[in-house]
Queue: 4 jobs
Job 1
Amino acid sequence: MSRVLLIWRKLLNIVMLTLTGVAAFGVVAVLFLILGYLVWNGGKSLNLNFFTQLPKPVGETGGGMANAIVGSLKLLFLAALMGVPVGLMAGVYLAEFGGKTFSYIIRYTTDLLNGVPSIVIGIFAYSLAVLPFKHFSAIAGGVALGIMVIPITVRSTEEFLRAVPGNLREGAMALGASKWRTIATVVLPAAKGGIITGVLLALARVAGETAPLLFTAFSNRFWSPGWEQPIASLPVMIYTYAIAPYDDWHRQAWAAGLVLLALVLVANIGTRVVLSRGGGGRSA
Amino acid sequence: MRKTLVVLFLLFAGAATAGAQSNPMLLNAAGATFPYPIYSKWFDVYHTAHPNIQINYQSIGSGGGIRQLLAGTVDFGASDGPMSDDQLAQAKFKILHFPTVLGAVIPTYNVSGVSTDLNFTQKALAGIYLGTITKWNDPEITKANPGVKLPGEDIVVVHRSDGSGTSYIFTDFLSKASDDWKNKVGKGTSVNWPVGLGGKGNEGVSGLVKQTPNSIGYIELIYAVQNSIPYGKVQNAAGKFVKADLAGVTAAAASMKDMPEDFRVSITNAPGATSYPISSFTWLLIPAQISDAGKRDAIKDFLKWMLMDGQKFNEGLFYAQLPKSVVTKETKAISLIQ
Amino acid sequence: MDRAAPRRFNGGGPRAFIHRLRHGDEVAHILTLTFAAGILLLTSMLVYELWVNSHLSRAKFGWMFFWTSTWDPVFDNFGAAPFIYGTLVTSIVSLVTAVPLGLAAAIFLSELAPRRMSDTISFLIDLLAAVPSVIYGLLGIFIVVPLMRTTVGPILIGTLGHVPVIGRFFKGPNYGVGFLTAGVVLAIMVVPFIISVSREVLLTVPREQREAALALGATRWEATWKVVVPWARTGILGSVFLALARALGETMAVTMVIGNDPKISASLFAPGYTIAAVIANEFTEATGDLYLSALIELGLVLFLMTFILNGLARLLIVATERGGGHPS
């Protein structure tokens, strides 16, 4: 009797363990499937037109997404401009100056902000940066994305500052540097690699966000000079083109998807490689 | 490290100034998807003729056009359903309606095995969208289509998920066609649809119908033509089945007795043997007072161009031209924009 | 000016304060504090805006908002029920799919795979988490939806549709879009979170636990399933909450494959709507003030849901890190 039980247990063992392997490789396979599809469908439509032309009127072929590519870059620039200083400073505060309770509150709030769905941030940015000024703008889009950049930046700044070895700080203080001097000239530069990778990861994350841009940056058929006009962006274009019935637009959506994914993955892979090589302390 | 920073900075600086011609006049507009094909053509052609004027039109639906105009975030809006008195009262400023083209809303479908034009009675369309008629071989549909083999499949109903003037035109027609509809659902840019899937924009509905077997949706004529999806004939007030075309739409407009001063009028279910019953004007919603002189002049100039030259593009994209009497009236009304 | 001083200036007292002030430390402190407080301000403003702008809707509908299932812009009658239902159903479907899958993968990565393989695979799976939502939506529309309509749907309806209790979830017309499709797409989006956190948590289980089980004659699987996993269960649960919080707020991928119909249906193949999706579709077009207010109230509801979940997740994960799990 126990012989049968033993065989059953051994069989179960093999089956379940194999299944776990299947699960793991299955999930990885999905990643490659996604990449594969995008490369297959998007690669076909990637041509010079895509990168240099403006969108053409509905039904006419041959348009491109030059303004959306530039638009996404401009939005990322604004997001970084607005989000990084706040996140950096707050991270410095938490790592270097913070008192116990206040730090806890700040960390909790930052986590909270991080968990807010991006569509809700879009609503907030609409009432903050669109309604009072009475128009959609790149700035409003930058505000929405900037808000999303802040929590990620805070976390990675704090993490990498804390990872700087104590003896570096002590050495600086022993030489007579005041606290802020130490931070500015010794600690921050030591943590700089990790912090920059954290910022890049944050930007890669918001580069793909669509929902908050729908009612802030809106979209634009043309170039968007300056910062106060509605502006096209890759994710919004992908969305608009994907749900339309025009085959030419679908092709462009795939191509745009490929470009966007390539940017995001390069940023992610690049930063992780740098991190693991020793740009910072714990892994992200 | 420093080099990469410099490169990045130059990249962004370049991006920031890209496309900045010598101060182009930028006008932002939003609204109906119904006329989007012709509007995008018009704004493109107009921009080529006037390179320093850019009109950025986003087709987010008539509801969106009205809302954003009321909020003041766009310079003008566009809608297939005229603004109601309530909505006009909500506005802090006076809004003028300018008809631009005439179009048709058609029932498009994707029924397995059917390649001919289906006839839809008014009762059939109302029943399908009310959810009382659920199968393609329902008697109300088969009796209007003798000789056509309709499958016993469930009808997949598709409607708009966004605030839409196309919905307004369609529900306006259904309200006239069926008292049941009028009382249960009513007309509007966004209604409480008894059944169906929601697609975003005319584009979304066309896409859904194209990809979903045994489905039916309502869209603007050009979207069916451009995507080669079949569309059926609709029974008009005189009892005749009419397939949407420019003649039928023009006939519906012609049967209108008098165009009101503010141009808000409904021509669905128009009398006349050849009238297409789901026809409508579509309007640009322009504020009566525009403080920025440059923008005001640009908009007025565009309207004039639209009424004269723009109309030439209509028929190529399956929209009917505005009746001459309407054009004359509108040209006069342009002067109301101060 | 920066003399090393034998006195402590990081303590209290006005002289110390003035010294710090003169030497920039206090300035730095105040400066960074201001930015940190700015985050507090920002978040408070967000909640405030949501609260204030949903006032019209809250005043008119009160608590009824939560169980009214009409969404009628023509007659100005709004209720959150269909959206809460859709949000919950799609999230549950995604978890039912992602948790077994994710846990299995995490077990493989922590218990079976050699370290380097485990690290590489984890790295690749983390990349899945970086793929933007709209791209999942793109793939959803053109690949998952047709697949669901032509292949998977009919199979499920043919088999599970006839099983007594759960049959009602697998009935009815199959459009390709619907709750199930949205749930499946969401599952792929949240599985990396479950795997990543679960794997880390499993790796912290002390070796002695495993070895003790094996010494007692357990098979590898039994040791894992009956000893290691239970030890880590708080942290794993935390990862599930994290994944759930993410699923609740997903917008683009969902709205592209769910069918956008504000109805409550038993069948998973029916079209539905989630809070995030309806806001995305209707926000720019809500033509009435009450309409807009109702949408913002939905945003507030979503915010609260994710707030509570994230809080719970945090508690659970922190509890694991501190206590190292409890013996059953």
Job 2
Amino acid sequence: MELLLVLILGLLYAAGVYLILRRSMVKLLLGIMLLGNGANILIFVLGKITKGSPPVINEAYKVFQDIYADPIPQALILTAIVISFGLTSFAIVLLKRVYALVDSDDLDDLNTPEEEDI
Amino acid sequence: MIDNHILAPIFVQLFTAIIQLMFWRKTLTQRYLSVGGSLIGLMVAFRLFGRVQEDGILTLNAANWDAPFGIVFVADTLSVTLVLLTSIACFAVSIFSSVGLSRQRMLYGYFPIFHFLIMGLHGAFLTGDIFNLYVYFEVIIISSFVLMTLGGRKAQLEGAVKYMAMNILASMFFLTGIGILYGITGSLNMADLSIRIQDVENKALVGITSCFFIIGFGIKSAVFPLYYWLPSSYHTPPSAVAATFGGLLTKVGIYAMLRVFSLIFVPDDFIKTLLMVMAILTILTGAFGALIKTNIRRLFSYLIVCHIGFMMGGIAMFSKVALMGAVFYLIHDIMVKTNMFLIAGVIRQLRGTMDMNKLGGLYRDYPKISLLVALVLFSLVGIPPLSGFWPKIFLFQEAFTQHQYFFIAALIIGSFVTLYVIANMWAQVFWKNPPEEENIENLFAPMPPYKKILMVLPIAILTVATLYIGLNAEAIVRVTDTISTQLMDPSMYVEAVLGNKMD
């Protein structure tokens, strides 16, 4: 399980970095999304995956007797997912507006020499 | 010591923003609320600052979870000083934006978002949990995305794409760093991390993790070679927004670096050298970039980059005196850079342009405003006894002690180029005769007198704050001395956070 996740997260990071280095805006966005997912899986893997032992203390005891699944990585990932959801939806709208204005998907075209601003 | 006042600055901004959301179409009400909320926030920040001066480090365990397990808020001297400075800048900017911003932009929710941004800044300064710091960073960047694109002109959106891509990337690096840090230590509380990281046997892994943080915070604070997004986006939004960004946002990166590198990754020789090389190149590239710009705000953007290098150099030398210099420069820089962008906004109102070639004759037409601006420019350049001068003494002193001659050279070049660029700007904008053929679009003259006052008042407020920092440097040195003592010896911070059990 760990090995599979490690491979997947390596793949996600590699694909994300590759896509970010492209000139297309859509690929930039996809790359950012893949990197975000890679980071989430990284947190998940580094939180030491434990199967079938939820972090609930047995009624008879006051503290954990066994190894238990760490709930913190899941809380972190949940937070990170919500945040990246917000960021991604903003980014999609922004890129759509830019595409409508610039009429190009190429990041190198984003250099209108407009000096006057408010 | 447990104290619930820590959250007050965050809550003031939060409630101001929420109440403003209820008056979505009523921009006049929003303006009053914004200035009022900022004023209350400023008073609360002063009070918190006073309490920390009296009682030492304050902490608050959120939801009463004991320290390493729950989220903890910590107010040490560095945090409250930055909260106070942010509040002053927020007060000035909210006054300025109530007259300096078009009603169209206010209708799209400028004020609520602005206060959410300030809330994020306060939260980032006050939290003692590294994941919570990440969350506040996200609050800051998502608010700043909205502010940057507000109005939706083409140049703005183009700048926003670069800004957004780089900032999200920085967050990803930061998040990856947090993930690895959690994996090797099993904690997120910064005080707890500072103890646990010493027990990690694989020091190489710790070093690599710290590189993730350097890159993440480096993008945010715009250091070489990660700063390119800044000059290509900071000149696009309205001046009020640019003032908030230029004065405060890059400084959060510096704050985070100070915090993380003093508490968790105490720099070894490799990290020190890396930071020092970055600092020197940041100063040089920023300075040379500023030399060739003719648009005032592009010039200021490069000066931000240049002066970030001064603070980075202070962190890189990592000694008590060096950190005093870095923190003093941080205090000075927040006030001055915010002010510079507000000044650019006023110049734009006076002449309808920010291109130095098309400007001129402002001293003849507006001598009083020009003198006010001159004070700010002198402070920025660091003419003794104004505020930019004092931190450089500490930086030079420590650089000589540690034989960092390249850094000294970079400091001198950076300071001289700043002087040259600012003198050139002064000559071009204020002294030169205005070009004849232009039909000047003066938005300032037809304004009613109260609006004129409201437009210049924030600059005056920030100038007074700068003059206070410069002329009463002894008080500031005392504060920075406390800060750097706390930074160099994290045991006080750790003791305050972890020793604070509720029984």
Job 3
Amino acid sequence: MEYILTMGVLISIFVILASSYNLVIGYGGLASVAHPIFYALGAYGASLLAIHTGIPAPLAIVFGGLVAVVASVLLALSALRVSGDYLLIASLGFQLGILQVIKNFEFTGGAGGLSAIPTTITGPLRTPLFLLICLSCAVATVWLVSSIVHGPYGRAITAMRDEELAFSALGRNAMSIKVVVFAIGCGIAGIAGGLYAFYFQYVSPEQYEVLQSAAILTMVVLGGMGTTWGPVVGAILLIAVPQGITFLNLPPSVMAPLQGIIFTTLVLIFLFVRPAGLVGNIGKTKSAQDQKALPEAAGKGGAP
Amino acid sequence: MTDPIVLLQILWTGVATSLSFVLLTVAFSLTQKVTGLWNFAQAGFMGLSFYVMYWVLNDLQLPLAVAVSAGAAAAAGAGYVTEVVGLDTLRARKSGNLTFFIFTLILAEFIIYWLALLFGTEPQTLFKSILSPVHIVGGIAVSNWDLTAFAITAVMVTALWLFLGWTKQGQCIVAVSDNAKLAELYGISAKRAYRMVAMIAGLFICAGMYLVGSRGGVTPNSPMELVLTATIATLLGGMGRVFMGALAAVVLAVIQSFSVLFISARWQALLLYIFLFVTIVLFPRGIRLPRRRIAGPPARPTPVIPTEAAQKG
């Protein structure tokens, strides 16, 4: 039972991550893959503050979110000058560079990771309470993202994404919208990082490597980019299914790669079978889905 | 001031070390030039090629030539199959850049997980010993590995240059990289060019991984760092300029080698990412050297190919 509740916590955290990333990439059209680094900054920011000052966990988590916001604004102001593939790779460089910094500093625990994160909730109800908190945060995130994108500001965001030149010609500041969308999405990721750190009480740099970028991106794309429920479905599916083999009691040297193989196989299958995502274009014919596939949602151009 | 011999040694070692990166960068950059793709799946092909060579050499105990042939066949074959089964399908669907990015990255991870499952995560080397006999030339230590690396790189890069410039197939590849649609109008198959490039890249990947694996340990995850280095060199050299990318790989490795004089070795990796970030933000089209103006007759105007619409108009 404890295991299932822990899975619930993990799924809720990834729903927060995927939904916030959907705001950045799906609605904002900002092809950054650095989302895990803001998740990491939130986790490390909250943990270090709690370890060194002993402030309550909720405040530390909010601080973690603020650290992610500040970092995202710094990245946005420099890297959002470029777009498409360039932004994708610049964000990857930013992510790996910050990870390298985290790995090399002693106060962050180095490559071995940061442990001894204070316990905030103790007793037998710890996991159910954490699940409740994380689930509430996940619901709040989905609601917040949905409210933003379905309101007047959301229409401005999608207009900027679809036709930036025309948007700017109307006198609107595309850059400020990009920075705000990016900061909101990354700030939410930072809060997810704080939640993760206080529940699992251990964070390490390897949890935020390139594979994590691919995982979160995949949850959004396979669930349905630019849809409210797509990232939720993607997160649930891609976290829950690979965990199914945990009950086989395989040795860790087999379990970890096997879970990875299941995860990547699922992604490859869905990428070809349902290119528009599990939630995207429900009710449309297959040929219409194929035509729509991803080019519009995932940015203009595409390979030849 | 540091002894000049020490500086020369660092320079030599830096250049020799860069040669494996040069081969991997040529593979990555050539693919990017012709297909327009950042093919991160090459990280998987690198791992596959290395572990096939390792398996044939150490488990099957077959000669080196057989191992290298098997490694080359594995990388070239994987590239070809990926083109035919995966990338062609995505192109036919007119998928977006992100789809290609996800596909290549996830495919790389898929292969890496299989390699981790089959061979474990401990570092492996191609040969039992990675010590190479050393000769002292003018006070500089030159190992047999260095000489092998220079020979392999020189032969392969020259062969590619000759192939692209002097053979019909090579010129077809260049034509597709310049303008695939126009090339197809002239009867050149873009698909064929993409597949050929995938196989050529496989040969370079195998050569690069032979050098990497004969000098140090390789884990299933190592190729991901190698492909990122290739990405940075490709960007620094300027997209579409394969041989400049190779030169950028040398420059990067030399800078990293010299950085030990100023910063701790553990921060060396950070330099690469700073280069990557700064290059994209400040030099998204690569670093271009100013061209010297040569006196001579005025340049001829570029011929304009009339478009279909203009002809109709």
Job 4
Amino acid sequence: MKIALEQNGFQVIQTRQGNENPSFDDRSAMANAQRGAVFVSIHVGSTGLPGTARVYVMSDLPSAPETNGLIAWDRAQAPFLPLSRRFGDMVQGFLAQRFKGSPLNSQAAAVRQLRTTAAPAIAVEIASVAVDDRNVLDRMAPGIADAIARGCSGFRPLYVVAAVNPGDRP
Amino acid sequence: MIPPVNPPMHPKWRAYLIGMLAIAVFIAALYVPVLRRRLHQAKDVPTVSEEQARRELTQTSPTNPNGPVTRARLFWSAGARDGSLMPVSIDLPLAMDPAPRGKQVLNTLLAGPIDAELRTLPPDAVLLAFYMLPDGTAIADFSEAMATSTPSGIQSEQMAVDSIAKTLEANVPQVKWLKILIHGQEVDTLAGHLDLTRTFLVNAKATPMPQSSAPIQKSQSTPSDVSNPLGAAVKGAPKAAAPGAAKPAGASQKLTPAATPGKLAPPAKNP
């Protein structure tokens, strides 16, 4: 997947390289330190129609304007929700073309990892660990990578990072 | 003295005896596979787990067993493996008060449908307590098994929460929000993915709680009621809309964040 994205001109930063298990906040901190980044969380679910993939975006978050000008860490995703939905729909569209039975649009869910991410963020869930043959999942990997890469490419022209004052963000 | 000698067995009786033994061995040979099969079947019968036994002990009996039977709607999996739910109507003698009524329907939901494949909640999970706050927030406190036995994944965890929320919406009109606790504590996620630090919108048009109710209306006492950490857990939880209640995305082609990103506040460090 990293290769597929890099071939499309994207820089890829992985939040884990091996068996280490960074916390939700550690992963969000890595993503939030980037500028103009999108965040993609990928995992294999326990249920679902085998051979399909679903994209989730964060469901609505309460808007709580901060008086001190800071974005609350716990609701960092809130300003990015429209962008995340647009990005999620694009990736889901490409996944639906590849994997029959996958939904046509992204779905909203209260995904913990996405809540603290200050960037367009999606979670891709592949179905499922319940398959008898692990090769079924392995064979899906190139298609998943291609769909995400195409989604990122399609989303890039729509993603305009708002101009901010120098020093406003790390 | 010469001891008396037993007279030799008559050949005819010896033949009878050998014949009887042979028949006994033959019958035993036929019966052993039957016994083995029964033993195997007995092994397959699920034993009552500690959590299940506890549920039976803490399960409250219907508040008004002789009262009017209400057609309750419970939401279990539709079986389509796409996370969709299907309402099932069951006649229950439901209480009128929202807290015991909520506890009744959630206990029935936990007991599961006839087809175990359509379960949305783990069979070992126990509803330890169910509270109603004056603002219409329902607090459902489940045992550890809810977190440890729910299959990990966004779809499965979402389905579990959806089935609870939809069942409450259909049967307890006073419930506006839902907060899920695990063993009396707020937890980060249900089984690794779904955020449980938030409250879930159940019914935006919920019936207001009756004014005569106590500030916190509890269901019947359970062991966990004694040390209810409700206040602290709920106050810190932000109110949020339920999954799927998303606002329509902006129509413009060029998208920018809704608010200009500023500095990020550091994550709150838990002591």
